[in-house]
Design brief:
It is a single chain. This protein is α/β, with parallel strands linked by helices. The strands form 5 sheets. The chain has an 8-stranded parallel barrel with strand order 1-3-4-5-7-9-13-14, surrounded by 5 helices. Strands 2-6 form a two-stranded antiparallel sheet. A hairpin with a 6-residue loop joins strand 11 and strand 12. The longest helix has 25 residues. The chain starts with 8 loop residues before the first strand and ends in a 6-residue tail after the last helix. The structure holds 6-O-phosphono-beta-D-galactopyranose. The site of 6-O-phosphono-beta-D-galactopyranose has 14 residues, from loops.
Length: about 475
């Protein structure tokens, strides 16, 4: 059976707001996550309009990658990383998103980070927008609801493309752009929360605004992709989808149809636009049945047609079931579903389904026939150092092993898979709950939910395991 390509990109992934800290240093502005307090699996994070003394904001210090990046990248190099997926925090470069000129100190930080990666032979894979919208754009424009944000984003993209043209080759436009098909996306991805102060789960849902804002992101993404193709032919431009694999709960055809409709809306819609360059016809019915009308400008269709991506990337954590009859609920990333009796779940209730990754890779590749990359996958778990300070995360090794095995099978099935970056390779703040306790890392960071911890780094047992996986190009699992 065919194995992973010889140039397979093994590595790990993070997002600026979840790892960097230094939220207001060196001219950085505040972004949406800087206004989000900590929560738990059962108590939602809150969004506060102003930064309050009596609240704890996990992104403000996070894992302090801002001051530890050299040590962290050296640790990644120690595992043999070929690639490191990270994001640029828009507000480090344009503090409010609206300035004409960029903040030099912010740009210089990413120069140091990319130089450090290159010195270790690690290729950076950069997400332009990973749930890091400037908060000033929320208050001024209601986030992506206003078309004017496209111009601000485009100025930011042109600035970082020009600055890092010789340091970065792989770019992703919007992290999990399809999160906007669910209410969750309004907060972290679209920033359509002007004036809102309260629990993240109670933001009023306005589908008309959500889908209009998403349209603006599609146009912004396509413009960035075409601009990059025209000016920097060496760049490879990708999309990024939160793949939420759905299974019909039973073989009742009604369940099958419901599942197909959810797969279209949640998983296929955004990538059909970004890979094929046009809105898929099934969305016409969805929009008309939900009273949604997308305002498009005359050039938009052409912009989308020309701005198609070179490779398709996605996050994969779990699968869920869909059915027409009531059933036991199950949690998941961004949206839950019905419980699958054949699967076990993580401590946060996300079902664990490695075979679902093989199925998903085959489905995506069969549809688009362009190179794929899994840019997020991993197990959020409570890790506790034992009395010798060792962190035996055998459960994480089991999870990763099973998913890498599934990728190998998919490659054997003929899928063109270019790389894999496990999520949160160094412990960081959880996007959904704001917890530090939900750890994904192969490297432990001494930082806790109450803000305590000396930020020291320590290898978990999964570190040496992953190192062997990379050294044998996925042969030894
Ligand atoms: C994805 C996000 C990441 C990340 C991950 C794990 O949705 O792109 O930013 O955090 O999920 O989710 P969580 O942190 O909620 O466990």
């Amino acid at each position: 059976m065919k194995g992973f390509r010889p140039d397979f990109l093994w590595g790990g992934a993070v997002a600026a707001n979840q790892i960097e800290g230094a939220w207001d240093l060196d001219g950085k502005g505040d972004s949406v996550p800087d206004h989000c307090t900590n929560g738990t699996h059962t108590v939602p994070k809150r969004i506060t309009r102003t930064i309050r003394e009596d609240c704890l904001y996990p992104s403000h210090e996070a894992s302090d990658f801002y001051h530890h990046y050299a040590e962290d990248i050296a640790l990644m190099a120690g595992m043999g990383f070929k690639v490191f997926r990270l994001s640029i925090n828009w507000t480090r470069v344009f503090p409010t998103g609206m300035e004409e000129m960029p903040n030099e100190a912010g740009l210089a930080f990413y120069d140091r980070v990319f130089d450090c990666c290159r010195a270790h032979g690690i290729e950076p894979l950069v997400t332009l927008s990973h749930y890091e919208m400037p908060y000033a754009l929320v208050e001024r424009y209601n986030g992506w609801a206003d078309r004017a944000v496209i111009g601000h984003f485009s100025r930011y993209c042109k600035t970082v493309f020009a600055r890092y043209r010789d340091k970065v080759k792989y770019w992703l436009t919007f992290n999990e752009i399809n999160s906007a098909t669910q209410c969750f996306g309004a907060v972290l991805s679209l920033g359509t929360i002007r004036g809102y102060d309260g629990p993240m789960t109670e933001v009023p849902d306005e589908p008309q605004v959500r889908f209009q804002a998403l349209h603006h992101q599609f146009v912004a993404s396509a413009e960035a992709v075409s601009y990059a193709h025209r000016h920097y032919p060496q760049f490879k431009m990708g999309n990024m989808i939160c793949f939420l694999t759905r299974y019909p709960r039973t073989c009742d055809p009604a369940d099958l149809l419901k599942c197909q409709q959810e797969m279209q809306l949640i998983n296929w819609f955004c990538s059909d636009v970004m890979v094929r360059g046009a809105y898929p016809s099934y969305m016409d019915r969805y929009f008309s049945e939900h009273g949604i009308e997308i305002v498009r400008e005359p050039g938009d269709a052409e912009t989308l047609r020309h701005g198609t991506v070179d490779f398709y990337t996605f996050s994969y954590y779990m699968s869920n079931c869909v059915g027409t009859r009531p059933g036991e609920a199950s949690s998941g990333n961004i949206v839950g579903g019905l419980k699958n009796p054949y699967l076990k779940a993580s401590d946060w209730g996300w079902p664990i389904d490695p075979d679902g990754l093989r199925w998903t890779l085959n489905e995506i590749y069969g549809r688009y026939q362009i190179p794929l990359m899994v840019v997020e996958n991993g197990l959020g778990a409570f890790d506790k150092p034992d009395e010798n300070g060792e962190i035996n995360d055998s459960y994480r090794i089991d999870y990763l092993r099973a998913h890498i095995e599934a990728m190998r099978e998919a490659v054997g099935d003929g899928v063109d898979l270019m790389g894999y970056t496990c999520w949160g390779c160094i412990d960081l703040v959880s996007a959904s709950t704001g917890e530090m306790a939900k750890r994904y890392g192969l490297i432990y960071v001494d930082k806790h939910d109450d803000g305590s911890g000396d930020l020291s780094r320590r290898k978990k047992n999964s570190y040496d395991w992953y190192k062997k996986v990379i050294a044998t190009n996925g042969e030894t699992l």
